[in-house]
Amino acid sequence: MSDPQAYTIGWISALATEFVAAQQFLDERHNPPESVGHHDNNFYVLGRIGRHNVVMATLPEGEYGTTTAATVAKDMLRSFPNIRIGLMVGIGGGAPTEAHDIRLGDIVVSTRDGNHGGVFQYDFGKTIQDQTFHYEQHLNQPPQLLLTAVSGLKAQYMGDNHELDSKVRQVLERKPKLRKKFSQPPSSSDKLYRSDFVHQSSLQPCSEVCMDDPDNLVTRPERGEEDDNPAIHYGLIASANQLMKDALIRDKLATEKGVLCFEMEAAGLMNHFPCLVVRGICDYADSHKNKEWQGYAAMIASAYAKELLKQIPPNKVEAENRILETIGPALSEIEKTTIATQAAVVGMGSQLLCDKIKSWLCPPDPSTNINYAKKLRHEGTGAWLLKKPFFQLWHSGCNRHIWLYGLAGCGKTVLSATILDYLSERHDGLLLRFYFDFSDARKQRVSGMLRSLAFQMYERGPVFRRHLNALFHDHHDGQDQPPTKTLSEVIRKMLMEGKNVCVVLDALDESTTRDQLLRWIQDITFDPELHHVRLLCTSRPESDLHQGLPDCIGQENCFSVDRQALNEDIRAYVVWQLTGGEGFKKRKLSEDLVELIESKVGKGSDGMFRWAACQMDNLAKCPTAKKMREELENLPENLTKTYERMLQSIPKNLRNSATRLLQFLVHSEQPLTLQEAKEVIATNIDVNPPFFDADDRVFEESLVLQYAPGLISIVEVTIHRDTVKKELHLAHFSVKEFLEAQADFGRPSASNAITRTCLTYLKDITGSHTGINQNFPMARFAAKTWTRFGSLAEAFQDSFQAMLVFVEGEETFQRWCRLYQADWSWDKDPGPPKGSRLYYTCLSGLSNVARELINKGAGVNAQGGLYGNALQAASAEGHSEIVGLLLEKGADVNAQGGNYGNALQAASAGGYSKIVELLLETGADVNAQGRLYSNALQVASVRGRYEVVKLLLQKGADVNIQAGDYGNALQAASIKGYYKIAELLIEKGADVNAQAGLYGNALQAASSRGRYKVVKLLLEKGADVNAQAGDYSNALQVASVRGRYEVVKLLLEKGADINAQGGLYSNALQVASIKGYYKIVELLLEKEADVNAQGGPDKHDLQKRPQRDCKSISREVKRLRT
Asked: How does pLDDT run across 801-839, given as a tens digit for each residue?
C-alpha cells in the first residue's frame, strides 16, 4: 500500500470523464493508500508524473459546484497532509470574443487578470439600488511556483509547437477502448451560434434542430498552419454554482470582465486549496450545449497539466509550505462555511428550480382578478354571505361543497373576493383559488386552472414540491408539456398531502371547457381519499352547470345568490358613491335628488350590481342636476339596453377606432396592453389606402377609455415580482356577450378588421429590427395575430389582397418573419425566414393565399423551416384543406426532413386522423423512418393519439418496428402511461419483451415513470420481470432509482429478482440507498435483499465508492422500525 506522506501534488477532477482522462497521463500508477481520514469519502488514484507523486480525486457522481469541490479538497488535504500545490483539471465552456478566438478543444489556463487572481466567482456579490450587481468574492491567485511554470511553458510553446494533440493520440493508440469517447471530433462539428439564437427546448440535438443555417452561425476563418491548434489561452476563468447556458450573459461577462471560460468548481478551491485551473473547452457556455467534445477537451487539458508538472523540479515543490500548514487552523471555519454555503446553495437551487417550473407551467395568476374585484368592492359588500348558515357549515367542514349561482352582473366575482379575504384570515389549512376569465384565454381552460392550482401548492413547501418536481423531470426537465390528464393526477397527489384544503373557483361559466371542468369536479368530489378537500364555486346558472353540479355536490349544496341581500349591498354602494365617490364628492346634490338616485338606482337594480354601477358612472358624467334628472327618468331597463346606449354614445369621430378596439378585445386570445391599444387606435383601415400614423396615438394611456366608456377598463397585471403592466380589458363578461350578438363583432367580420389592422400596421412601421421592437409596441403582437384570423379573413377580398401583397413583398415578408415565426414561437427574435413564402402561408392555414402562390409558381416541395416543407407544416398544424391542395399540386407525400421527418409523422403527432388518412391514401409510407420518434406509429403512441394509432395499425403499420429513442411504439406508449394504446398495441401483436430504445424495454420504460397500470398490464401479458437491458439493467432497479414505491412492490410480487446485479448501480438496494428512498429500502429489506451484494466485476471503481453506505442505511431503517 502507498504512504500518503509521499504525495506532494493534489489533482482534482469534477467529472468521471475528466477523471478517466487524467489517469491516462500518469507515468506510473501506485497502489491505493494505506489509510485515509475517518470521514473521507473521496476515491483516490495515486501515481507518478515525471518525478512528482500525484494524488488524484474526483467529485461524487452527480454532484457539482464550488461547495462540493471544497469538500473534496478538504478531505484530500487531511488524508494526504504533505500536499504542497494543487491542480484543478477538466472541461469548461468557452467565451469567444473578438479579442480571444476560443474554439472547441482549446485550453484555458487560469492566470492573474486585473483585480482577480485567475478565478472569478460571478454568482457572489450584492445588488445596490439603482446600480449594477457588485461582485464581492475575492479569490486567491494560483501559487507562484505554478505561475512561473506556466510562463516557462508558454515561452517554450511560442518557439515550438506544443504537440499536445499528438500526446493525446498516443494515449488513444495505447487504449483503443477510449477512442470513441475521447478522440477529437471533426472540426465541422465546432459551431458557434449567434448569441441571440437560442436552442429549441427539445430532446433533439443542434444538428437536427438548429442545423447549419449561416444566418444563425458566427463565421470564423480557419486556423492556419502557423496557428496553434488547439490554442492555449491565459487569463480569467469564471466559476459559479450554476451551469452557464446563456450566451448573452456569457458575452456580457467576457466583455466587462475579460472572462475566457466558465465552469462550476474552481471558486470553491482557490482560498482553501491553492491551485492552478486548467480547462479544455467543450462548448460555448450557451443553450447549444452537447457532450461531443467533452472527452477530447478533458484529454487535452490533462495533457497540458502533465507537461506543466514536468517543468517543476521536485525540490521546488518540497520547498513550498504544506497547504495543510497554511490553512490548517482555518479548516474548522471552512467546514462551517461549507455547511452554510451548502444550505445557501440548496436554497438557491430550490429557487432556481421553482423559477424553471413556473416558466414551464406558465400558471395563470388569479391575483389579477382578485385585486380588480377588490378595487370594485365597496366596504361591507357580501358580509351577509359570511353569516349564512350554509357558508358557516361549509367553513366549519360540516358540508364539503357549495355552488353559489346568480345572473350575469349580480356581483359574484366580488363576493368571491370577500370570501377569500375571510378565509385568508381564518382558514388554518391550504387555500387555493382560481378565477376563470373571459378576457384571458389562459384562464378559460381547465388546463390553465390545473397549472395555477399546482403552482400555488408548489409554493407552499417541500411536501407538495416533490410531486411537481417529479413531473418536471419526467417531462425531460420541462422540455415537454404534461397532458391535462397527467397534471390532474399529480394535483390529486398534491391535494392528498394537504390538510383541510379549501378551493375557491370563480366564474365557472366563463370556462370554454366546461365538460372537462365538470368531470374534474366530479373526480374531486367522488374521490374517497379527498374528503378533506372542499370546493366553493360560483357561476351563472347555465344549463350544463345546473344539471351537472348538483350531481357532483348534491342539490342541497346549491344556492342562489340572495337577491334581497344583494339589493341591500347595492343601496349601500349607491349611498357610498353619492357621499364619497370620485364622480360625486365635489358636487352638491339636493336631498331630493339624492333620494331619487337612491330610489331609481339603488332600489331599481333588482340585484344587478353591474347595472347599478353602469348607471352611477353615467350619472357622474352629467354636467347639471337637470341632466341627471332626465337620465333618471329614462334609465335602461337591463344590461343589454345599457350597453346599447353606451355604444350609441360613442362620438362619431371615434366610432370606427372604438369598433376596432372592441373587436380586438372580444376575439383576441389575450388582452391588449395599453401600448398596443394606442397602436390599434392609430391605425386607420377605413380609408384607401389604409395607413398607420404615429401622430394619431393618444397622448395619455388613460385617454384610451374615452373610446368606449363603460365598456372597457384598465387592469394592472403583475408579470414578474414588482413589474406591473397595464392591460385593456372588456369591463365585464356581459359586455362580451352583448357585443358578440352585434353584426360588427361577429367572428368573420372581426377577423377581417383585425387582419387588415395588423397588416396595415406591419406595412407602415419602419426602421431597423431593433428599432421596430423599441418604437412600435404592437409589432410582434401584430405579426403573430394576423395569421390567427387570416383563414377567416380570406373570404373578404380586401383582406385577401392585403395578405397576398404582404406575403409577396420582400420587405414586409422579411419584417414579418423577423418579428414572429409560428414554428419558432418561443423565440422573440427568430432571425430571417428559414422557409419559403408558401411554407409560412401553409403553416398559418391560409389556403386561398397558398393556392394563389402555387398558381404563380411557388415550389410545393421547397425545403426549409422547422417542419422541412409546406406539406409537413400544414400536416403538423392540422390544416387539412391545405394538405389536400398541396397533394393535388404534386407535393411529395414521402419527402423526408424537418422536425417530424415526414408529413405522416407530423399529422400523427397532432392526432389529425383525417390528414393521416388522406396522406396514406395518397401513398404515404406507413412505416417510413425519420427523426426523433422514428415513425408515425411511435409518435402517435408517445403523444397518446389513440384513434391515429388504431388507423395506422389498420393501414399496415409494423407494430414491432425498432427505431428511435423509445425503441418501439409499445415502449413509447408505456413511458407516457397510455394504457389504452399499450393494450391496443399488444392486442395487435406488439412484443412485450422487445429490447431497444433508451429504457431497454417497455417494462422498464413504464417502471421508470411509475405507470402502475401499464406495468401491471405488461406483466399480465407476459413481460419478463427480470429482463436485462438498458443503463439500469432491469425494471426493479429503474423503479428504485426513481423512487416508484408502488411499482417496486408490484414487481417484487410478480417475482422480480431482488438481488439481480447489473446496470449503473449494481442492484436495487444499492440504488435506493444511494438515492435515500428509505421506504423502498425498508421494503427491499423486508423481502430479504442481500445487504452485502456487490456490483459486477466490470464496474469502474468510481461507481463503487461510498456515497450513502448501503449497510448504514439498512441499520438506520431497522433502528426506525423498533
From this structure: 999 999 999 999 999 999 999 998 877 788 899 999 999
Q: Write the DSSP string, 883-904.
A: HHHHHHTT--TT--BTTTBSHH
What is the layout of strands, in order, in the sheet containing 712-720?
Answer: 672-673, 723-730, 712-720
Residue 621 to residue 617: CA distance in whole angstroms: 7
Q: Name the domain count of the chain.
A: 4
Q: At what angle do helices 367-376 and 412-426 cross, to 10 degrees?
A: 110
Question: What is the total residue count of the chain?
Answer: 1122
Model-level pTM greater than 0.70?
Answer: no
| CA dihedral sign, ordered 520, 525, 528, 529 | positive
- The grid coordinates of residue 70 equal 471544497
**Which of 130-134, 721-725, 864-868 has the lowest average pLDDT?**
130-134
Judge whether 146 and 305 are in contact, CB under 8 Å: no
- Using CA atoms, how far apart are residues 495 and 464, in angstroms rounded to an integer? 8
Confidence of residue 225 (pLDDT cuts 50, 70, 90): confident
Which residue range is the domain that position 577 belongs to?
Answer: 565-635
Q: Are both 278 and 169 inside the same structural domain?
A: yes
Spatial distance between the Cα atoms of 677 and 704, rounded to a whole number of angstroms: 7
512 compared with 325, residue with greater pLDDT: 512
Instruction: Please spell the DSSP secondary structure of 948-976, one letter per residue.
Output: HHHHHHHTT--TT---STT-SHHHHHHHH
CATH of the domain at 260: 3.40.50.1580
> In this structure, are residues 1005 and 979 in contact, taking their beta carbons and an 8 Å threshold?
no
The position carrying cell 432497479 is 1037
pLDDT tens string 1038-1047? 999 888 999 9
- Cβ(1039)–Cβ(1069) under 8 Å? no
Element (H, E) at 53: strand 52-58
Helices 652-667 and 674-681: crossing angle in degrees, nearest 10, is: 130
Q: Which triple of cell numbers denotes residue 1?
A: 500500500
